[in-house]
Amino acid sequence: MTLWVNTLLVVASHDYEEQDIHSADTKDWGKFHLENTEDLTITGNAYVDCFLSAGLSPHRAHHLFPYQRSGWANIYTTQYIKAAAEKCGYEWKAPANFWTDRCPSLTRSYLLGALADPLTRKPVYDSFFHEHFAVRPYFTMVKYILAGIVGIGAI
Mean pLDDT across the stretch 22-29? Predict the structure, then answer.
């Protein structure tokens, strides 16, 4: 269950199901990450949210400075990233609320919708039955669980 919730929080920090990220202007690396990642709020307290999301709630800072190694550092640097983004004329979106913004969208796209290939957006499986009873994804899930037990770098 922990693995599933953590994966859900990673997906919740990216607004990929609503956008076509492959047609985005990717010449400006920083702008791309500012536009395609979202900060997340779960409780409204940045430090509690950081703890509950395993450091993923200040997600734009994580994408722009991935080697900070601390969610708390991401919270601190977010104020400077926001100031720089606004100074350069980039839109700064308020953090998305996990419960009211992201959960409904994720439910529609990932739990109720057909699984689509991220590059082509075409369905991967022919039917609901094939999607939920295919054997290969379960082997992949077991592989990731075992890698999580072994530790970082096992994948």
Answer: 67
Q: How many domains does the chain have?
A: 2
Together in a domain, 32 and 48: yes
* CA angle, 114 then 62 then 23, to 5°: 50
Crossing angle of helices 136-150/2-12, nearest 10°? 100
Q: Tell me how far apart the alpha carbons of residues 16 and 13 are, in angstroms, rounded to a whole number.
A: 9
The one-character DSSP state at 116 is B
- Write down how long the chain is: 155
pLDDT per position as a tens digit, 114-127: 666 666 667 778 77
The confidence score (pLDDT) of residue 154 equals 56
Cβ atoms of 2 and 18 within 8 Å: the answer is no
The rounded mean pLDDT for the chain is: 81
Statement to judge: residues 74 and 100 lie in one domain: yes
List the beta strands (DSSP E) in the chain.
Answer: 40-41, 96-97
Structure confidence by residue, pLDDT tens digits, 44-57: 999 999 888 878 88
Q: How far is CA 113 from CA 72, 108, 117, in A?
A: 35, 6, 12
